[in-house]
Amino acid sequence: MSGGGKTAQCSGCGLTAPGGAAGCEAIFHEMVARDFSDALRFRVHRMMVDTYSLQHPDRYCASARSFAAHLTGLCAILESGASRAVGDELLRRWLDGNVRLQRPVTPRFRGELTIAHVREALEPTPTPPPWSSGRSRHGRLTPPSNRWLGSGFRKRSQGGGCPGCVGAVESRP
Ligand SMILES: [Zn+2]
């Protein structure tokens, strides 16, 4: 469970939680522990870690290299189909090499969703949500949705890296 203490706002993501930033980080550690105890939840481990790190750059993206690792890692997952569980090995090798980076200024707004939303989504629901029972009513939509998914996966498999975010943090020699 999250850390105790006075309710305060996390300086990273803006979550209001007992203990503020410490409480937010406690939830994050709770989610990481769940990832390592359940193979199904580990499927999105790297995506969650990169997202949380980018929302808390003072702690997890202090250097240009760590910032680039999380930014390009998340970008590769979202835009190039890299593994949500472990990320992209090529990016790790790129960052392990002799690469010169300049850390960009971090944005002030870091999204509306926080790690508390992740925890909330993982809590078992006592009954299926009402919308889930209506699947048969949407049966006519299944063929197009499958075609669209197929198109999306084909496009992803043809894509390369994401020079946009890499270029944003790479400095010129
Ligand atoms: Zn936070």
How would you characterize the overall build of this protein?
The protein is mainly alpha-helical and 173 residues long. The protein has one domain (7-169). The protein contains nine helices and two strands; from the N terminus they run E-E-H-H-H-H-H-H-H-H-H. The protein has helices at residues 21-37, 39-42, 45-55, 57-60, 64-80, 89-96, 115-122, 142-158, 163-169, and strands at 7-9, 16-18. The chain has a two-stranded antiparallel ribbon. The longest helix has 17 residues, at 21-37. Residues 134-140 and 160-173 have low confidence and may be disordered. Residues 10, 12-13, 15, 24, 56, 114 line the site of zinc ion.
List the defining traits of the structure above:
173 residues; two-stranded antiparallel sheet; mainly alpha; 2 strands; 3% strand; 9 helices; binds zinc ion
Could you provide a short overview of the structure?
With 173 residues, the chain is mainly α. It has helices spanning 21-37, 39-42, 45-55, 57-60, 64-80, 89-96, 115-122, 142-158, 163-169, and strands at residues 7-9, 16-18.
The biggest sheet, with number of strands, parallel, antiparallel or mixed sense and barrel status, is:
2 strands, antiparallel
User: Which shape, going by the Cα principal axes?
Assistant: globular
How far do the termini sit from each other? 47 Å
What is the SS-derived class? mainly alpha
Attached small molecules: zinc ion
Outline the low-pLDDT stretches. 134-140, 160-173
The strands making up the biggest β-sheet line up spatially as 1-2
* Proportion of strand residues: under 5%
Average predicted confidence as pLDDT: 81
User: What's the number of extended β-strand segments?
Assistant: 2
